């Protein structure tokens, strides 16, 4: 086995790294979990996971009691240029307008009022235009959003669910996308879950897996008492 001189332990304690060189095989693993601190992380978010994750995070802002949809528009430099989620129009109180799916007449349903996530993402754009961009969206766009996407010059649609594929709105959207040369494809995530755990973060500790706590768990308190020997364990 290769015997390199590598730090016995590298702990981040406050603002300085502590290290102690020793002759150990190159298997020196992080304290409390199995990450090798000498190697680049391989389980970082891929771009597409990051963008779909942003779409899902945006969806969590939605007040729709049934379907929360988010969208994220990205340019060819992988820069986010717009995000949105389904909600009532600006200035129209979402305590006044209905969230019902059903009503005596359509005016009593949310469908007459709610702005779709895709529409909001386009309108919320922070660039001069979204030509040639990609939109990540949780649900396949309806025909009305397809028109907006096409007119805005977006060229790629990456969706998570096509659960309304049999509806005319979805069929019409696909007809228009095909004619306009907008490519659409289903998102295939590498990892099924992305967990954000606000309590997992620990700035005193460099080798954190946000949201992926080790069995032992970890806390700033425990770290304060951490010695180099602890780190080497
Ligand atoms: N591509 C889509 C599809 C739907 N939405 C919004 C519109 C409504 O707020 C909700 C759908 O309600 P449901 O019929 O599932 O009760 O989702 C969207 O923003 N984008």
Automatic annotation (TrEMBL):
GO BP terms, alphabetized: nucleotide biosynthetic process
Needs which cofactor? Answer: Zn(2+)
A GO molecular function term, named singly, is: zinc ion binding
Q: Which reaction does it catalyse?
A: dCMP + H2O + H(+) = dUMP + NH4(+)
Q: Outline the extent of the CMP/dCMP-type deaminase domain.
A: 46-177
Q: Does the keyword Hydrolase apply?
A: yes
E.C. number, please? 3.5.4.12
Name the UniProt record assigns to this protein: Probable deoxycytidylate deaminase
Organism equals Artemia franciscana
